[in-house]
């Protein structure tokens, strides 16, 4: 790779980081919420198709699952992110107290941290002096270097909302064919299930592509993994639904 190409590649990475990093966590949450929504709803559709249920029943089961599971996931996401923030704040308060009341001990810990990084002599003392001259900087270094904790800037409420929106928005895709069938009064369950498979496959492909963009992994592999996950859930649900329909009838 030439020097010019290297600079172009680095500039592209930094440009992407500049606009993408702000939304990366939220896009990641959208991806995983969408995956869960589409997989779980398609599993309901497949199970219902295996049992030969009417479109109205599929819609009822699908939407009940969509709203209930989507809400449960969004609450879980909110509580998880809120807990991370509260845990960080708790340890941050402890570090501030220690800096105020045990400054020599905390100063020695800074010295040990940077001595382990290879600093020594006068340079080490200069580093310690600079860091400990500002309380906020001092605490920030202690949080990162001693406790390996980084403050999360993402909003727990926004993360929970993103989970719910993506779960419902992508999760409704497997139900579109059944909604159309119900409103148009056309009944062909085999055809509907095939249409649902096609629509959901496109949703999986889109989510798989977006997941590869967030995780910076192979697009083909990410799409294949997402399709495999959805297909596995659908096959299992279809088999169970078909078996239960035969058993009960």
Provide key terms for this protein.
disordered N terminus, elongated, 9 helices, 249 residues, mainly alpha
Give the helix tally: 9
Order of helices and strands: HHHHHHHHH
Task: Determine the oligomeric state from the structure.
Answer: single chain
Instruction: Report the sheet-strand fraction.
Output: under 5%
* Mean pLDDT level: 83
Please compute the radius of gyration using only Cα atoms.
26 Å
What fraction, in percent, of the residue positions are helical? Answer: over 70%
Q: What is the general shape? A: elongated
Number of strands: 0
- From the N-terminal CA to the C-terminal CA, the straight-line distance is 68 Å
Which helices and strands appear, and what pairs or packs with what?
Elements: H1 3-50, H2 55-101, H3 103-116, H4 121-132, H5 135-146, H6 156-171, H7 176-184, H8 189-215, H9 219-248
Helix pairs in contact: 1-2, 1-6, 1-8, 1-9, 2-3, 2-5, 2-6, 2-7, 3-4, 3-5, 7-8, 8-9
Give an account of the 3D structure.
The chain is mostly helical and 249 residues long. Helices cover 86% and strands 0% of the residues. The chain contains nine helices and no strands. It has helices at 3-50, 55-101, 103-116, 121-132, 135-146, 156-171, 176-184, 189-215, 219-248. The protein is elongated and about 80 Å long.
